[in-house]
Amino acid sequence: MRVRRLLAATACLLPVSGCAIPMAAPPAPPAVAAPSSPSPYSAYENRIFQLINGERARRGIRPLVYNGELDRMAKIQATNMAHFQKMAHVLPEAQLPTLADRAHYVGYGYREIAENVALGYPSAESVVQGWMNSSGHRRNILNAGVVETGIGIARSSAGGIYYAQVFGSRLSLH
Predict the structure, then answer these.
(1) Are the CB atoms for 76 and 152 separated by under 8 Å?
(2) What is the rounded distance in angstroms from the CA atom of residue 81 to the CA atom of residue 104?
(3) Stated pTM of the model
(4) SS3 per residue for 45-96
């Protein structure tokens, strides 16, 4: 169990070197109409969800499904990054500094877990493109071993837009 946790924690840290930040200062995210069908996501998060699943579908990978625990983890991370005005997978100053801490907090027992973060992209399309242009983030998006996801977006007091997406597959107890 300890090795599995260590491997999961290490896997989520691999993409840190490829965290995506656009070169130009972004405008505020566009106002988007509410989706026509009920969704657990805001319209902006829903667009990211659709784009990520589109990338997976183009490669024959089954779509991710929404998971409330992963969504809560992503929202915690996006909010903390905005609060501390720091884009990172690990925030030592936060109450839940690591992905593993957040998984434990929300009760998500995982076999595999990963996280993408980003800062400053002006649209859902641009943040997904930024992740797809980063090998570590792309690997998380296209990982057929993860089947669930959650997405969080938060704005800092300075106006920065912080994104977090958590990917996972539950620990099977069978």
Answers:
(1) yes
(2) 19
(3) 0.78
(4) HHHHHHHHHHHHHHCCCCCCEECHHHHHHHHHHHHHHHHHCCCCCCCCCCCC
